[in-house]
Amino acid sequence: MAEDLSADRVSRQPALSQQAEFSQEAWARNHAAYETIRAMPFNAELADGSLSPERFRRYIVQDAHYLIGFGRALALAAAKAPHPDRIVQFARGAETAIVVERALHGGFFRDYGIDAASFAATPLSPACDHYVAWLMASAYAEPYEVVLGALLPCFWIYAEVGRDIFSRAAVDNPYRAWIDTYAGEEFGEAVAAMIAATDEAALEASPALRERMQAAYAHATRLEYLFWDGAYRDRVWPL
């Protein structure tokens, strides 16, 4: 699934969804931010295998905390979804976030000697806490369309970063399990379904509501950057 992720990425987007108006615009508006995320030190070092185990350990612990909140936000999206198929999609997505992806983390937890007690005792980092709190607030208080705008970057950016890293990572990269998961076909299908659902929701949204969706997408993109950067730089609470 590795592919060229050059600036023409936007023009290829209709292959993921036939109703790509919102997603095309969102990707175009935030393309520079994606490029910054793709090339940031955490992902550059993850790709070449030089990322320190301590930095990856910090990331994986925070990501496990994040997925709990992300799963709850997906469950709330399911509750707000206007169509039965979307209810099923987001309910299954919540299950995947909690069960399947945590199984991936479980392997790393064993490798890094992280047990349930040490995980529970590790507080959410500032970036993780902000991201989870904002997602949950959005999922509770915002309309369905804006909730999808907030959720989409976590799916989409992970898939694109995973594909980019897959295209240049060595076979013996120590983070191969992470790379293969997010560059894989199964995750790619979940991303395509999320893009389709978001574009579908945007079709009937007013211009003002679409702008709120775009604002949510842009803010989530910024938080994706802060999450990786916080793990790389060991950002902790000052007090």
TrEMBL record:
<dbReference type="InterPro" id="IPR004305">
    <property type="entry name" value="Thiaminase-2/PQQC"/>
</dbReference>
<dbReference type="InterPro" id="IPR050967">
    <property type="entry name" value="Thiamine_Salvage_TenA"/>
</dbReference>
<protein>
    <submittedName>
        <fullName>TenA family protein</fullName>
    </submittedName>
</protein>
<dbReference type="Pfam" id="PF03070">
    <property type="entry name" value="TENA_THI-4"/>
</dbReference>
<dbReference type="InterPro" id="IPR016084">
    <property type="entry name" value="Haem_Oase-like_multi-hlx"/>
</dbReference>
<feature type="domain" description="Thiaminase-2/PQQC">
    <location>
        <begin position="41"/>
        <end position="233"/>
    </location>
</feature>
